[in-house]
Design a protein that fits this description.
Blueprint (H helix, E strand, L loop, with lengths): L6 E3 L5 E3 H14 L8 E5 L2 E12 L5 E2 L16 H9 L10 H10 L18 H7 L5 H10 L14 E2 L6 E7 L4 H11 L9 E7 L4 E4 L5 H8 L6 E7 L8 H7 L3 H46 L1
Parallel strand pairs: 4-10
Antiparallel strand pairs: 1-2, 3-4, 4-7, 5-6, 8-9, 8-10
């Protein structure tokens, strides 16, 4: 008797054999060789578990609400931190969490893969942008007292009524450490907790967005890390985006082929489709009209025969 086959869950209904997922995992880790995004494996209760960092891209069109106060009571701001705070605030509009070089270097030094420092890239459309920029230049005694009271957050800006509404820059990237047993809903909650987002998780969804324009929603019962491995490691081809639940829309592969064309070209396609539709309608109409005439002719012939009898 052979050994019992081990599977990895893609969703509640779909399973993938261990041999298949390990083959894909070798390709995935080879692509990320020397980087922090290689995945590790372990077995738990007869189940193969993948774990590591997962990149998620911000695709929000509306602002999100952040907590007014930081939960981390262990943090204290002293006078030696003034220059660090000013530097971090002034660089807030330019820092993109896509830059992984420094993170990779620190990960190598520590001997472990490290998750990126949580930072959100603020869009320049935010009302508080200019105020945050000015706030970084000088600090009066009153400002420093206010800094000690509010403390700067994990994503480099102040939690107060002026900056608690925040719009992450579209297409900027962050990551979370997950495993293959975590569902879409769990990964989404983990991302929101990482940045202290007060919005409910039901307001957001994940989409796998392809270079072709195809958009596939990751359902609550699916496993994003497994989906990432299945779609391949190259994020130029496909990326996981977080979007508003009421603004996102799935786009099939067939429809995605037409999205890249200009409006006049699409209009010509529509006209061609209408002409083809008319031809098919006429063809079917003639076909069934002929069948109808044949049946009526047969019925009339039988009627005449019965009358003679």
């Amino acid at each position: 008797m052979g050994e019992c086959q081990i599977y990895v869950k893609l969703s509640e209904e779909k399973l993938i054999p261990k041999s298949d997922i390990l083959s894909l995992l070798r390709t995935y880790n080879c692509y990320h060789e020397g980087k922090n995004f290689q995945l590790r494996t372990r077995e738990e209760d007869g189940e193969l578990i993948l774990e590591g960092l997962l990149n998620i891209y911000w695709g929000l069109r509306r602002p999100i609400r952040l907590q007014m106060h930081d939960d981390n009571e262990r943090f204290r701001l002293n006078r030696n931190d003034r220059s660090a705070v000013a530097k971090q605030l002034s660089a807030e509009s330019n820092n993109n969490s896509l830059d992984r070089e420094n993170g990779a270097a620190s990960g190598d030094m520590g001997g472990q893969e490290e998750e990126e420092s949580p930072q959100l890239l603020r869009t320049r459309s935010d009302a508080s942008f200019m105020q945050v920029q000015r706030r970084s230049k000088t600090h009066t005694a009153r400002d420093l007292q206010r800094l000690r009271t509010h403390r700067f957050s994990i994503n480099g800006h102040f939690y107060n009524h002026k900056t608690s509404v925040f719009t992450p820059a579209y297409g900027s990237v962050t990551n979370v450490r997950v495993n293959s047993s975590m569902t879409t809903a769990q990964v989404l909650n983990l991302l929101l907790q990482k940045f202290r987002v007060e919005n409910k998780s039901e307001e957001f969804v994940f989409y796998m967005v392809h270079e072709s324009g195809e958009r596939v929603r990751l359902r609550d019962g699916e496993y994003p890390l497994v989906a990432r491995v299945l779609y391949g490691p190259c994020e130029k081809i496909s990326k996981i985006f977080i979007t508003e639940a009421d603004l996102g829309e799935e786009v099939t592969y067939d429809v995605a082929q037409y999205i890249k064309f200009e409006i006049p070209v699409l209009d010509s396609f529509v006209e061609k489709l209408k002409e083809e539709e008319e031809r098919e309608i006429n063809k079917l109409t003639k076909k069934y009209s002929a069948l109808k005439s044949m049946i009526q002719h047969q019925l009339e012939g039988r009627a005449h025969t019965s009358d003679r009898v």
